[in-house]
Amino acid sequence: MIVEQGIPVKLEWDGQDAACHHVLATDARQTVIGTGRLDPRGRIGRMAVLPSWRSPGVGRHLLAALLAFARTQGHREVMVHARCTVAGFNRKAGFREQGQAFMEAGIEHRKMIKTLICVNNENNR
Q1: How far apart are CA 7 and CA 105, in angstroms?
Q2: What is the mean pLDDT of residues 88-92?
Q3: Which residues pair with 108 in a beta bridge?
């Protein structure tokens, strides 16, 4: 996806991977076809799905897994910097835009927020 989006490698590798929760989607041969991560602050990022697997809903399943994990961790909301060209994907999942569009890694993005209902009742107080 770095190549597809034209993102320089030095911007993609931020040193945060060890602290994040990662999800992977694989095909029947266990080849990775999609990925995403949730950082400790509740920011979803590094969502990427191979082009041939986008229509079958792989991204939707990755996002659902990240949201489920965020709930178990007590996050009351999650945030994503969505590329403007795919912000509709996040809107369909219940995210709402916050603020104006901005440039990140040379690509126009929107900050989007989703409020969560936590699984752990102690975190709902």
Answers
A1: 6
A2: 95
A3: 103
Domain ranges of the chain: 2-124
pTM beyond 0.90: the answer is: no
The number of angstroms, rounded, from the C-alpha of 27 to the middle of its chain's C-alpha atoms is 20
Residues 6 or more apart whose Cβ sits within 8 Å of residue 116: 67, 70, 71, 75, 76, 77, 78
pLDDT at 20 over 90: yes
CA angle 74, 79, 82 (to 5 degrees): 150
Between CA 110 and CA 92 the distance in angstroms is 15
Both tokens of 24, joined, read: 């992977």
2-124 CATH: 3.40.630.30
Calpha distance 20→44 (Å, rounded): 9
Q: b/e map of 3-41 (b: 16 or more CB within 10 Å)?
A: eeeeeeeeeeeeeeeeebbebebeeeeeeebbbbbbbee
> Which residue, chain included where needed, has tokens 């509740």?
42
Residue 93: pLDDT band with limits 50, 70, 90? very high
CA–CA separation, 60 and 57 (whole Å): 5
